[in-house]
Design brief:
heterodimer; A: Rossmann fold; 6-stranded mixed beta sheet; 4-stranded antiparallel beta sheet; 7 helices; about 30% strand; B: alpha+beta; 6-stranded mixed beta barrel; 10 strands
């Protein structure tokens, strides 16, 4: 659907976990290619290996075998520090249960990745404000998470995810903890971010949510296949 | 790029937030450090204050002075006037002052004061202690004959026995002789008076030393203060005095002793140092216990905040950044404890100095030590929890509920 340079490429990605004496193979040779500006949904039931795939895409984990290029760079056996640098520059995470720091207000939550990206304080301030305005929370910048609704909290999390201007927005069940109406609002926000040219990879078990994406891949028992929503 | 100072500042702000969020727990954890530091500071300050006071008294008497004590041997009883004269001519000696002391009764206006201390002094004593007399006059050569009944009274004696009366020119009856008061001595702050309990005395009167000797029916001299010339080598003079005494006694050296105040002071100085080290090391056990408390709290904090650590890592925090944050939190925690401990320790020392009636000085070294120690405790005992936090796998950390 969307054309553009290839921003993510996976070839034969496998992931094995040692469970006692048994080796459990969670991903069985995944091939995947994502272009800049795509809105991709990875659809699969729980236990299908989609979380593991998300961890590998998000550079939280490294594959047992296979090759993974992100933004042209091969992600091989990196140590935790280099993975942290890659995450900081390339990935914006959005989680099902928002994961905001409860003791800090919206403003400071959005500021956090910018601190880790070593952005100078003055630039940081401008950027945090810009992001919060973008997600429509200009009047709630200094509210604590517990003073915000679920939808508002997820919008803070989205502002936080896009603050560093990452290559990929990686969303894990972004509407899973929201009611239908606020879920729809979050999806609207995703659409407008995608319209700006942001690459979004969304992981979900919900085919209705997946239908928002421009392209859908299905994952089942560690294998991936393109398209087809009907029997999800 | 953000400077490393900026990183430290960020970590500092975060740790303050976390300490605030767990006020009660942080306070209890700090308490160990507070007690440890307070104990160290308190003990060191008390030892220093007290020994400074003692040393001060020493040096009041001690600088440039050698004390000679002569006893009675089978062949010789103390020192004769000729012996004293010989000792005063020893190379490097500026002057000698025979001293003597008796406890007796004195009578003022038919009122008897039984516990009067009578000190015998010579003119040399006054010429080396120009501040000793605050009013009236000192003794002159004519007073030294043993036939002159003049005396100098100290402040205690005036307070107890002469309150509200004319002092100079008044007559006091001591041992059957009538003495005329010619001067007033300032409060005696010499070593001897410091070491003896003067509170039960009715006061001190100073008379020519021969008068004291005759009170007890003696003619010989047993105690001598020797004033050494400034440019002379103290230990050389000391050994010359010893050999002169050896010549006089012609016997083993059990019958006389020469005490160099300076060597006595340096000995006391090292005793003080040892005492201070001993007390500080006992008190630092409390610091170690406090440190274990900090470590425990930090470990609990790390496992409670596993998810937060995972999130921070997902947002791009390097392991070293996480480690820095927890380490700074531990340092901040123990340094706040340390500062409170310093304040409490100084308060204890101040109260102790007040009770002991010694002047109180704030020891800068002790404060540096207390704050430095608590920071070190924070680093040492925060290291393992911080390392553990930095090594958490972000996936496991995020997944933990």
């Amino acid at each position: 659907m969307t054309s553009g340079e290839e921003i993510l490429r996976m070839e034969g990605i496998t992931k094995e976990y040692q469970m006692g004496d048994e080796v459990s193979v969670v991903l069985k040779g995944i091939d995947l290619s994502v272009n800049r500006g795509e809105f991709l949904a990875v659809l699969g039931p729980s236990g299908s290996g989609k979380s593991t795939l998300m961890n590998i895409i998000g550079c939280l984990d490294v594959p047992t075998d296979g090759k993974y290029w992100l933004h042209g760079n091969l992600i091989a056996d990196e140590d935790q520090t280099s993975l942290a640098h890659i995450r900081s520059a390339e990935i914006g995470f959005i989680f099902q249960s928002f994961y905001l720091l409860q003791r800090q207000d919206a403003w400071h939550n959005v500021e956090l990745p910018l601190i880790y990206a070593n952005m100078p304080e003055r630039k940081r301030k401008e950027r945090v404000e810009e992001m919060l305005i973008k997600v429509g929370l200009e009047d709630k910048m200094f509210h604590m998470p517990n003073q915000l609704s679920g939808g508002q909290q997820q919008r803070v999390a989205i502002a936080r995810a896009i603050a560093t201007n990452p290559t990929i927005l990686l969303a894990d069940e972004p509407t899973g903890a929201l009611d239908q109406k606020t879920g729809a609002q979050v999806m609207d926000l995703f659409h407008s971010l995608n319209d700006e040219g942001r690459t979004i990879i969304m992981i979900t078990h919900d085919s209705k949510i997946a239908a928002h994406a421009g392209r859908i891949v299905r994952i089942l028992d560690g294998n991936i296949s393109e398209g087809a929503i009907e029997d999800a | 790029m953000l400077s490393s100072l900026g990183i430290i500042k960020q970590s500092f702000v975060m740790s303050i937030q976390n300490i605030k969020a767990n006020k009660m727990r942080s306070f209890l954890t700090m308490l160990g450090i507070v007690i440890g530091v307070a104990a160290v500071i308190g003990l060191i300050t008390i030892v220093e204050t007290v020994s400074d006071a003692v040393m001060g008294k020493f040096s009041g008497l001690g600088a440039g002075t050698v004390m000679v004590m002569a006893y009675t041997s089978p062949t010789k009883d103390g020192l004769s006037d000729v012996d004293v004269d010989v000792l005063s001519r020893v190379e490097g000696v500026e002057g000698v002052s025979p001293t003597a002391e008796e406890m007796t009764a004195s009578v003022v206006d038919k009122e008897v004061y039984k516990k009067t201390r009578v000190q015998g002094r010579s003119t040399t004593y006054f010429s080396h202690n120009p501040d000793a007399v605050t009013a009236g006059r000192v003794f002159n050569e004519a007073d030294m004959s043993g036939e002159s009944y003049v005396c100098i009274v100290d402040q205690d004696y005036i307070k107890k026995c002469l309150l509200g009366r004319q002092v100079l020119g008044r007559e006091i009856l001591v041992n059957g002789n009538t003495y005329t008061i010619v001067g007033v001595a300032k409060k005696d702050d010499s070593l001897m008076s410091y070491m003896s309990d003067t509170s039960r005395l009715d006061g001190t009167i100073i008379v020519p030393y021969r008068n004291v000797l005759s009170m007890s029916g003696k003619t010989r001299i047993y105690n001598l203060d020797v004033y050494v010339k400034k440019e002379a080598d103290m230990s050389m003079v000391e050994s010359r005095l010893r050999s002169a005494l050896q010549n006089m006694y012609n016997d083993n050296d059990d019958y006389y002793s020469v005490v160099n105040m300076e060597s006595l002071m340096s000995m006391m100085d090292s005793v003080q140092g040892m005492l201070g080290t001993l007390l500080a090391s006992i008190a630092s056990i409390a610091l170690v216990v406090g440190g274990i408390g900090i470590m425990n709290m930090m470990l609990v904090s790390v496992s409670e905040r596993t998810k937060e650590i995972g999130l921070r890592k997902a947002l791009g925090a390097e392991p070293s950044r996480i480690q820095m944050q927890f380490l700074i939190e531990s340092i901040v925690l123990s340094m706040i404890g340390g500062i409170i401990g310093v304040i409490i320790g100084l308060a204890i020392a101040f109260a102790a100095a007040h009770a002991l009636e010694t002047p109180f000085t704030v020891p800068g070294s002790a404060i540096t030590l207390g704050v430095g120690f608590s920071a070190a405790v924070g680093i040492v005992f925060g290291w393992v929890p911080a390392k553990r936090a930095s090594e958490l796998n972000p996936i496991d950390a995020l997944r933990s509920e």
